[in-house]
Automatic annotation (TrEMBL), chains A, B:
Pfam family, one: Aminotran_1_2
Listed PANTHER family: HTH-TYPE TRANSCRIPTIONAL REGULATORY PROTEIN GABR, TRANSCRIPTIONAL REGULATORY PROTEIN
Family from the record: In the C-terminal section; belongs to the class-I pyridoxal-phosphate-dependent aminotransferase family.
Protein name: DNA-binding transcriptional MocR family regulator
Every HTH gntR-type domain range: 11-79
Organism lineage: Bacteria, Bacillati, Bacillota, Bacilli, Bacillales
InterPro entries: Aminotransferase_I/II_large (IPR004839), HTH_trans_reg/aminotransferase (IPR051446), PyrdxlP-dep_Trfase (IPR015424), PyrdxlP-dep_Trfase_major (IPR015421), PyrdxlP-dep_Trfase_small (IPR015422), Tscrpt_reg_HTH_GntR (IPR000524), WH-like_DNA-bd_sf (IPR036388), WH_DNA-bd_sf (IPR036390)
Species this chain originates from: Bacillus benzoevorans
Top-level taxon: Bacteria
Keywords attached to this entry: Aminotransferase, DNA-binding, Pyridoxal phosphate, Transcription, Transcription regulation, Transferase
Length: 477, 477
């Protein structure tokens, strides 16, 4: 709920809330028969005293807008609008339908908190801080170029010119060979993963994903009815032989890997392992989905080339994104792979959303070709390196004896193992009380007692304070 | 395939094609074991002589890149890259998986043709012609406003400011009352329909849709495993009593309606019917999805208010879009409905694509608030009216005795019944030969012998020529 009471107004607070709820009932946003949040919950959401809400609900009842029954809470009246008591949709039944599992509760808890938290320390979200976005570069390069005159539906695979730019881009930055007809532009890597799981696999299929991994935190694998099997990941990536074992046992049909600066561990798969993984996948005829959103953010000057760049068999579906190198709200990502697969995904995608808006494609197209882009990348890496250093310093200073971690050589995250025994849920709640957000490892499929800190979202000074605050939270639980 | 031979080049055509295919094989875009298009088909796609392709395939075979077997066509070699013959993914098995049905063949045929057709007459696509897009307005209003500095992930329901603007917008233009927390911004109406069918319904559920209708042409209903039942539609919309009949027989769980300037018929549901539909839906407790992309494009000065504006029960999910009033490549649409439903859809949507890019939202936000927007709407309506008049004239002149139609009072389409008996498929093919594209009624669920002509995509002079050409095509079949 984004509405909030206006404490400067002459109108009493309970009156403001009464009118707000009255309006939502009149608009059908709280439909007849639907249940209002409990008094306690509503008070929390609107950040007011619970007695105020008790007062409001009493008034709503007196005016006939809501009905209250012991045990079933406060419901919007069904009589009020002259409709038969039966005459409304039981929305709950619809909301509980469909194939999509909801976001995992702990993640939802953290995301909801991130939306409302003021002057806290957000080390949870996997994104850059505001000052790292190249907003002025983007605007300048956009203003210099005219809009295209044709704003009709775009090609189902994405704007052709942009796909051509991207083909050169991945050649230059990742040594990947691809032509524009084998590229599908997506709404970030997220939609790429969604399309692949929904359109190329069937419910009941077995897939292998890294544990821990970002993929583990996505309900979309389960929403698609897939059976998930874990490939344990260490600082050198997964062990290629585990693929063979999983294949023999479960006939896995697809492998999801995030080989460079993996989320959440920050690890980088070694080159011999990369080669072996490709060999095994080719031998078994299993496709690999390579999720590669941050490999350009390397701090030590080393370039880590994707699996796709050394693959000879066409077994790799390469997924990229501009979210972590430009801006996550741009929503530009891509899939590169065999033409037949790209065509199939593009066709399904027409049904889902008719393609990505042309504007983010135009903006990205201008920017990644401009001389500003390499400058921006250099600036970004330098900033992230400094923030990483700051976090490492702080971790050593305030948590040196309590956590173990290895220094990430790139990317946005620092992955820490807490030495003492902790309950992730309790740790998150205590941290929220102290206005600290982080991601607990359990949402990525690791045991309790791991945490992922994003250093990309906080200024250097804030990183120190955040880690110190976290250390105090840890002492408490 | 977007690549084409360069006829100005010194390099022989067969050599260009050889290198093109060689490249696609090397890049894994034609993976080992995959089948190349037949010689005939490849010749058609690249618009070259079939003997050229025979030559190219011979050369590819001689160089070991492809293998040819009687009866199984031309396949990319599996040996070439030193991989075991088994060592590749059988992509065909993946492509045939997933829950998405492909686009209906006749629609795909027309869309593919639209992509490559040069100097023909496209009366098929439901979109505006290039000159009707407010490109310069959009650019101007965009250049005047700075980008927001925060380009991090957007709120799952969409950019808050834009949702607030939209709440005022639908109040002003459609007399709909809604607050920003009950709005979900989508990638056009298409994604709205997708989310609703995927997230609120279960496989096997029965739904009612108008016949004929745009919904009928969407494989997404069947992809979601829904059972579809028809509500016949005439010039006054559906017959409300049909809902009761369908409900008794099939327990329909949702109704999809496009009440104003319906696609494809152009009809407008009468007011008494609108009221009765709402009454019945409320009595039975069935939600209505109201798809309303073109109601602002009224030619006779009459405003047609949506069902949503007179609904008191919160039973209507209102779906809107800027595709037909601004530009389809903007990809901005919305769903408005009960807050609990919007929250559920927004959560699922996070899994699918992490929300719409902020840029189309910013552009739309600027433009619909600007004084240019009403001017643009007035211009658009005037232009469409003139084109409609031109089409009506041409239909009367060239097809007066052969088709029946009623004059559309708004929207983009003219719906014609052909008096003689025709086969839709044959008519489409003959038309394509003569560079005319239109939509056959059968894809919208009507019997053979109906056609939908878009007058929005062609200039006035072209409309006359297109209808004349169509008349000749009709004479032939
Ligand atoms: C490993 C990984 N893959 C994919 C994504 C999705 O990112 P986007 O859809 O913004 O490209 C993320 C975002 O956090 C990520 O960390
Ligand atoms: C009736 C109707 N609904 C929905 C759509 C989808 O449009 P968009 O996703 O571009 O808003 C169309 C487009 O042709 C349409 O005609």
């Amino acid at each position: 709920m984004e509405w909030s009471v206006n404490r400067e107004s002459d109108k009493p607070i309970y009156q403001q809330i009464f009118e707000y709820i009255e309006e939502k009932i009149a608009y059908g946003e709280f439909p007849p028969g639907s249940r209002l949040p409990s008094e306690r919950k509503m008070a929390e959401q609107l950040n007011v005293n619970r007695m105020t809400i008790v007062h409001v609900y009493d008034e709503l009842q007196a005016s006939g807008l809501v009905e209250r029954k012991k045990g079933s809470g406060t419901r919007v009246s069904t009589h009020k609008w002259g409709i038969l008591p039966k005459g409304v949709t039981n929305w709950r039944k619809y909301i509980e339908g469909g194939s999509f599992l909801p976001t995992y509760p702990l993640i939802k808890r953290i995301r909801d908190e991130a939306k409302v938290m003021k002057d806290g320390y957000n080390m949870a979200g996997g994104e850059l801080s505001t000052d790292l976005f190249p907003a002025s570069f983007l605007q300048a390069s956009f203003n210099q170029h005219a809009f295209p005159s044709n704003l009709g539906y775009v090609h189902p695979q994405g704007h052709l010119e942009f796909r051509e730019t991207l083909a050169s881009y991945v050649k230059e930055y990742h040594d990947i060979n691809v032509t524009s007809s084998s590229i599908l532009i997506t709404s970030g890597a997220q939609q790429a993963l969604y399309l692949i799981t929904q359109c190329l696999l069937n419910p009941g299929d077995a897939v292998a994903i890294e544990a821990p991994s970002y993929s583990y935190s996505l309900p979309l694998f389960q929403s698609a009815g897939l059976r998930i099997f874990a490939l344990p990941v260490d600082a050198e990536g997964i062990n290629p032989d585990d693929i063979v074992t999983l294949y023999r046992k479960h006939q896995i049909r697809m492998i999801f890997l995030n080989p460079t600066f993996q989320s959440p561990t920050g690890g980088v798969m070694t080159e011999p392992r990369r080669e072996r993984v490709l060999e095994i996948a080719a031998e078994l005829g299993i496709p690999i989905v390579e999720d590669d959103p941050v490999s350009l953010l390397s701090f030590d000057g080393k370039t880590h080339y994707p699996l796709k760049s050394i693959d000879k068999s066409g077994n790799v579906l390469y997924v990229g994104s501009l979210s972590k190198v430009i801006a996550s709200s741009l929503r530009v990502g891509w899939i590169m792979g065999p033409e037949s697969v790209i065509n199939r995904l593009a066709d399904a995608r027409q049904q889902i959303d008719f393609g990505l808006s042309i504007f983010p494609q135009l903006i990205a197209n201008q920017f990644i070709q401009s001389p500003e882009y390499p400058k921006h990348l250099a600036f970004l890496k330098q900033e992230l390196l400094e923030r990483r250093n700051e976090m490492v310093l702080a971790l050593n200073e305030y948590l040196g004896d309590k956590v173990e971690f290895s220094v990430p050589k790139g990317g946005l995250f620092c992955w820490c193992k807490i030495k003492q025994k902790v309950d992730d849920q309790k740790l998150v709640e205590e941290a929220i009380k102290n206005k600290i957000l982080f991601m607990p490892g359990s949402v990525y499929g690791s045991p309790n007692g791991y945490v992922r800190f994003t250093y990309a979202r906080l200024q250097r000074e804030a990183i120190k304070e955040a880690v110190l605050k976290f250390a105090k939270v840890l002492d408490k639980v």
